[in-house]
Design brief:
elongated; eight-stranded antiparallel β-barrel; two-stranded antiparallel ribbon; alpha+beta; 10 strands; single chain
Length: about 280
């Protein structure tokens, strides 16, 4: 979780500016994005139309130019994939929580300004850098088991020196399109759709080829062999030969995140305090 600690430290370092700078408060806003995530990888045949699961993100956006804004986001969601209908006899499946911290830059297609007669609606595109954590799990006999420690494709075994245990914290590149509209003096509503390009093929714990089940049992535990090849649950006594393709290691896994957002300008608190003073007077 080291990457997330760095993001938290960065946000805390910015907080004095958010509180004490009137200029920053005028051009900055914070809020929430609520929507869904889906996964694109080996267990849904690399389709962008995978199963949707809930997701949410806390946002902090600074509009430093009518055409440009920078946004910090801290997101949480869930992805999953795999079922007998899609994956045929492999019968592999997984689910994983996703925690993501990101920094993106937005480009407004229309100059986006404040004021009663200013432009209040614009589509935009965004791109940036992020770090995300994941932890693929599979269900067996009603219990969910973490897959990474089981080394289901022989990661870390001397027989497979090129297969290293994968890291559960990875970098990603968020990019996509959005639409935002100022509502009143302080609020903005929007919609956003974005992809996350990653550099790991193990969000689903599936990447290369099957390994010998006895090798897994002898070097890790029997559960690793069971969850590595689950084809016998569909076709009794069936097992894939070691070396048979289990996934496609030529393509990394991706995930997508979309939803609706609402943000409020930080100087709304200045207006509230001013209103309180006027009432007191």
């Amino acid at each position: 979780m080291y990457g997330f600690k760095r993001i938290a430290i960065l946000l805390m370092a910015l907080s004095p500016l958010m509180v004490h700078s009137q200029t920053l408060r005028k051009d900055a806003e914070a809020g929430l994005l609520l929507g869904a995530m889906n996964y694109i990888g080996d267990l849904n045949n690399q389709k962008i139309t995978g199963k949707l699961n809930y997701a949410a993100s806390a946002l902090f956006r600074y509009d430093f130019h009518p055409r440009w804004a920078v946004q910090f986001g801290l997101a949480y969601g869930n992805v999953e994939g795999g079922n007998p209908d899609v994956i045929e006899a492999r019968n592999l499946s997984f689910r994983s929580n996703i925690i993501e911290g990101s920094l993106t830059v937005q480009f407004n297609f229309v100059p986006y300004q404040r004021g009663a007669y200013a432009q209040r609606l614009t589509p935009y595109m965004f791109a940036g850098i992020g770090v995300f954590g994941f932890n693929p799990k599979a269900q067996y006999n009603g219990v969910w088991y973490e897959l990474q420690p089981l080394c289901t494709e022989g990661q870390g075994l001397s027989q497979y020196p090129d297969r290293k245990p994968y890291n559960l914290i990875q970098l990603c590149v968020p990019f996509g399109l959005g639409l935002k509209c100022r509502v009143g003096k302080y609020f903005t509503i929007g919609a956003e759709y974005g992809f996350r390009k990653t550099w790991t093929d193990y969000i689903d714990d599936v990447s290369t080829t099957y390994v010998d089940s006895k090798l897994l049992t002898d070097n890790t535990e029997e559960l690793a062999a069971i969850l590595s090849d689950r084809s016998g649950e569909i076709e009794p006594n069936h097992a894939y030969t070691a070396g048979t393709q289990r996934g496609d290691d030529s393509l990394d896994d991706w995930y997508a995140f979309f939803g609706l957002s609402i943000t409020v300008k930080l100087n709304v608190f200045d207006a509230f305090r001013k209103h309180q003073k006027c009432d007191a007077y």
